[in-house]
Amino acid sequence: MSAPRPVPVPDSQSAPYWEASARHTLALARCGRCAAFALPPDVTCPHCHATDPGFAYEPVSGRGTVRSWTVVRQSALPGLVGEVPFVLVDVELDEQAGLRMIGRLLDGPDSPLRVGDRVRAAFEDVTPNVSVPAFTFGGVAS
What we know:
Layout: H1 15-22, E1 27-30, E2 37-38, E3 56-59, E4 64-72, E5 86-93, E6 100-105, E7 118-127, E8 130-137
Antiparallel strand pairs: 1-2, 1-3, 4-5, 4-7, 5-6, 7-8
């Protein structure tokens, strides 16, 4: 029997993100001071440096542009050994310049992929209650 796939362990700050993901919604933390998104959120806003950012999670489109990628051919995590090779993409989301997210490209490692390709958020159901954000081709420009 193979090892189970690792699953996120939410804390008080990340719980809204993972709850939204379980509903197949990409929701990101927005600073209550400057209105910029922060991914991941921290104790201070990375944009305005507010120490009391009052982050609130808001749904976003999940559409973006591929900035870079890598093909993972070996996994140090036993729960992912049977899933290699797979592609991790670095995506700049449409909602904000410089807002980048890394996720698995679900279209497979043999898909033709170029910097600048458009993608959209999708979700991998890891368990009945846990879904992990990922990407697929087709994020038409907004």
